[in-house]
Amino acid sequence: MNCSLEPLTGIKAGMSAMVKEVRGGKNVRNRLMEMGIIEGTTIRVIANSGGPLIVQVGNSRFAMGHGMAQKIIVDRVYKGIDIALGREAGCNENESHYHGYSR
Amino acid sequence: MRMSHITMAIAGNPNTGKTSLFNHLTGARQHVGNWPGVTVEKKEGQIRYKDKIIRVVDLPGTYSLGAYSEDEIIAREFILNNESDVVVNTVDATNLSRNLYLTVQMLEMDANILIALNMMDEAGRLGIEIDLNRLSTALGARVVPTVAAKGKGIKEIIAAIIENGIKPSKGKFRIDYGEDVERVIDNIVNMIQDDKKLSKYPPRWLAIKLLEEDEKLVRQIKATLKGKEILSYVQSCRQALENKIGENLDSYIIAKRYEFIHDVISQSVQRPQTGNDLLTDKIDRIVTHNILGIPIFAAIMWLVFTFTFIFSEPLVEIVETGFSTLSELLLAALTGIGASEIFISFVVDGIVSGLGSVLSIVPVLFLLFIAIAMLEDSGYMARIAYVMDKPMRMMGLSGKAFVPFLLGFGCNVPAVMATRTIENKRDRLITILANPFISCSARLPVYVLFTSVFFPKRQALVLGSLYLLGVFMAIISVKLFGKIVPEQDDSSFIIELPPYRLPTLKGVFLHMWENVRGFLNKVSNIILAAVVIIWLLSSLPFGVEYASDESMIGRMSSLIAPILKPAGFGTWQAAIALIFGVLAKEIVISTLGVVYKAGSFGLAAVLSEHFTPLSAYSFMVMTLLYAPCIATIGSIRSETKSLKWTAVSVIYGLIIAWTMSVLIYQIGLMLGFS
């Protein structure tokens, strides 16, 4: 199974991705989670300027700075259909290639 | 029933109809503290229902009740202190999962909650079916469906509170955090239970908050008798738990709350796929477009300013005519009853004409605030932060700081007030301090007069150069203060973008009026004091001609004049005009008219006798940059809540203005201009 974990900043406008991990310092992490961005949530990217992004989570949309979006690690393989069918992620934490991104 | 007084608090996420609910509940019986709504100050109102009185307190809109922002702390303390008998929690029915996160936190605090399940019409449109009974049972809280924007469900809320009364439900609500964490929670509860100092906190809630490392509570615990012991126990447990669960404990706890919420939702909600708001999608695709975004924004702002200036001109005239008629009438009336000359001068020259000059900006405020209210209520305002983020990053600020700078071109007062939307305190302070250099509309008449006399052929160029200089100084100041004001850990931002809505007339006017009233309430003292002081200085010692070189202010100006000499205008007349200009910058002109005994028509002719083109330019630079006007100073004071930073702003402005005008005059002389 193909698996590609990457920060949300890599997702193009119009695409969706599933949140795998929220990183960063406690404040940023908690802030994002309290706004509903938690593991397993699907995020739809509405605009991605290379700087800030506009995303939709549930029925609300947010503008977020580039720095924040980098803290959100997502899996772009997931599509609505995969979630509906309950397919599992095939990711091995150790070989994922998102190491080196900001923490 | 015994109770005749009930206190009700309203809590909820931003954009969930909290304000609508509050307005519908309280109607006209509102009392706004010093500053209206948006930030920390609280709004209060009253409901009379049969023989009962309900006091309604609007808590700040928050997503959570942690210790990050002042808003959250205020809402949390209010609930913990049991200041309210019941908390009405507005919950957006189309966005249950995130909204219930706040609800769950309040339930964990043993707050007595009544849920106003709002936007039910929208939920219906999206096909979301909510079983109210099941939701209520699962949460252990009463649920009332509402459409606050249309006033639906308001009566039912009041009835629910009055008729069913207040039923505290202490300690019933609990989320299962898993065996290991629960064991630790129990132990912590045992340790803190008998400390009287902590008795205001529900013990289980406190234990969980300590595991989450809530900064404020950790600090408070540290000061108690067994504080260190408790904290070191919590610390070691956290370590052990994190090793076991393989993630941060704070994240784990938040995730557990969401797990609970998702259980509740799956029991009580039938929802098809979340629908996308197609209209909002379409508009966003255009207005936040990578290339189109900025031009569209520029066009909207052009509209805002055109609107403001076209309509403000006649309104300003009305205000000015009104005040001058008033002073004539008062003069006649007071002379008629034989009032003393000093008293007449105090009323006419001091209060009426002084206030008149300052209040002539009120029409501009009105119109700008209407425009701001429309931008905000339509949902576009939040998008500006996104569109302007990249350019603002280059200056070290986030996109949210852009709007205040822009508004500064209209008037610095709403600009300073608009910085309230910037959460990051450092960015906010920097934006406030740099803002007065943006050339507001009151400075324009000064430029127009001087350029028409001294640069008739290059009027536009000279005008443009002054505006650019203002922007340039603002950028320099942002950079400078960016180095001085301590860095905050994260300037990255996240803001919710509300769906686009057509602003309502009533909503826009309420919104505008709140801001204008806020301004008047807050700065009227400062303005009145300034007006009186200036009058006194102009009249003392009694018997001298008002504001002549014999008066105190004239003598002060003569003292200041030599300091202004290197800038090319070392006369007491120029100095006094600048002093009066602090009331409002356009007064610089009328003051010059008075002291040169020229009236407003002869002034142009007289000016060329007293200024050269170079010293005129230098004088305009001074007018642009020196101390902000009194209304702006008042706003800076009330927004920063710091005398120190207000003083910094004034003194910094004076120093920069003097330096720049001296530099320009001296370099100009060297280059052979005159």
Cα-atom Rg of chain A, whole angstroms? Answer: 13 Å
Write the CATH architecture name of the domain at 5-164 in chain B: 3-Layer(aba) Sandwich
Task: Indicate the multimeric state.
Answer: heterodimer
CATH fold title of chain A: SH3 type barrels
Q: What's the domain count of chain A?
A: 1
Question: What do these coordinates show?
Answer:
- The complex is a heterodimer of chains A (103) and B (674).
- Chain A is 19% helix and 30% strand.
- Chain A has a six-stranded antiparallel β-sheet.
- Chain A has a single domain (5-85), classed as Ferrous iron transport protein A (FeoA) (SH3 type barrels, Roll), CATH 2.30.30.
- Chain A has helices at 26-34, 66-70, 80-85, and strands at residues 5-7, 16-22, 42-48, 53-57, 60-64, 72-75.
- With 103 residues, chain A is an alpha+beta fold.
- Chain B has 674 residues and is of the alpha/beta class.
- Among the domains of chain B are: 5-164, P-loop containing nucleotide triphosphate hydrolases (Rossmann fold, 3-Layer(aba) Sandwich), CATH 3.40.50.300; 179-270, Orthogonal Bundle (Helix Hairpins).
- Chain B is 63% helix and 7% strand.
- Chain B is built from 30 helices and ten strands.
- Chain B has helices at 18-26, 70-80, 96-108, 120-125, 132-139, 154-164, 179-192, 203-211, 215-222, 227-245, 249-268, 278-287, 293-336, 341-359, 362-378, 380-387, 389-393, 402-408, 412-418, 425-434, 444-454, 459-484, 505-539, 552-564, 572-581, 587-595, 599-610, 613-625, 630-640, 643-670, and strands at 5-12, 30-32, 43-49, 52-58, 86-92, 113-118, 129-130, 142-145, 269-270, 494-497.
- Chain B has a seven-stranded mixed β-sheet, sandwiched between helices. In chain B, strands 7-9 form a two-stranded antiparallel ribbon.
- In chain B, a hairpin with a 2-residue loop joins strand 3 and strand 4 (52-58).
- Chain B starts with a strand and ends with a helix.
- The relative contact order of chain B is 0.07.
- The model of chain B is unreliable at 34-39 (pLDDT under 50).
- Classes of the chains: A alpha+beta (103), B alpha/beta (674).
- Strand 5 of chain A pairs antiparallel with strand 10 of chain B, so a sheet runs across the interface.
